[in-house]
Write a structure and sequence with these properties.
The protein is α/β, with parallel strands linked by helices. Helices cover about 35% and strands about 15% of the residues. The chain has one domain (about 30-155, about 205-270): Rossmann fold. Strands 1-2-4-3-5-6-7-8 form an 8-stranded mixed β-sheet, with helices on both faces. Strand 1 (about 30-35) and strand 2 (about 40-45) form a beta hairpin.
Length: about 270
């Protein structure tokens, strides 16, 4: 297993958010209560057809605001919806393992779509966000099209070793190659317990399930991110899957103009 990509995946946007820690619960922020009472924070900007953005690990919905994609979607007339997945940002941080199991994060998103009374929507995920998007593709027929960025096929294995390593490291077990990640979490004031439980209960989507996804799905990988679908293997699992490659590594790709161009052009056509 390559150790550098593991750390890059975990520390996505770490430079941008170092030292900021948890967001205070500002009553002026927008929330809805999910199926189990968990408060989920969300933002909506712009008007037009809705695009929901799903963030990755150790970040929250604000991470999208630094990307070219966020601005391009608004400029092209889309409505942009972001949320903080449970355990992140200004959403509630349950410390019960059951709160993250049985597709809880996907259910939060589906509940938000219902709360906002959206008949259909497009969805974009990056890194761990793509894992959640895969669940949405299986569970929610309101999706019009989807983009999965920065993710290969390894998450289809419920016993994915990388997920297990993250869980063990965040649970306090010695995992030398992830020591810097744990240190970053602790120094940044992030919720280590919640992050640990996310890895413990992280969902997988089987190749058989993906093979039944008929909606158009664009899978985007960086040409220097070999662990995450550079070769198009994830896209090939889905009947209407398409694949693109953008110059860059796991950290840099999502913020680039080229990534945004790929996504916006795909969403305009689908």
């Amino acid at each position: 297993m390559k150790l550098l990509p593991i750390i890059l995946l975990c520390c996505l946007y770490s430079v941008s958010y170092a030292g900021k820690g948890l967001r205070p619960a500002d009553d002026s922020l927008q929330y809805y209560r999910s199926f189990d009472g968990t408060r989920i924070h969300y933002t909506i900007k712009g008007k037009g057809e809705p695009v929901l953005l799903v963030h990755g690990f150790i970040v929250d919905g604000r991470s999208w605001e630094q990307t070219s994609l966020y601005q391009q979607l608004l400029e092209k007339g889309f409505q942009v919806i972001t949320l903080d997945l449970r355990g992140n940002g200004a959403s509630d941080h349950p410390h019960d393992s059951l709160a993250y199991m049985n597709d809880a994060e996907a259910k939060d998103i589906m509940g938000l779509v219902t709360y906002l009374k959206l008949p259909e929507y497009r969805v974009v995920g990056y890194s761990r966000g793509s894992i959640i998007v895969a669940r949405l593709l299986v569970l929610d027929n309101r999706i019009r099209s989807a983009v999965m960025g920065g993710m290969g096929t390894a998450f289809t294995d419920p016993n994915w070793p990388r997920r297990q390593q993250f869980y063990e490291a965040l649970a306090g077990k010695p995992v030398p190659e992830l020591a810097e990640m744990v240190k970053y979490v602790q120094q940044s004031g992030l919720d280590q317990r919640a992050l640990c439980l996310m890895q413990f209960a992280q969902p997988s989507t089987s190749p058989e399930e993906l093979g039944k996804v008929t909606k158009p799905v664009l899978v985007l990988g960086g040409d220097r991110d070999p662990d995450n679908d550079t070769g198009g293997s994830l896209a090939a699992m889905m009947p209407a899957g398409m694949h693109g490659t953008v110059t860059g590594d796991h950290n840099s790709v999502v913020k680039t103009r080229k990534f945004a161009d790929w996504v916006v052009n795909f969403l305009k056509d689908h």
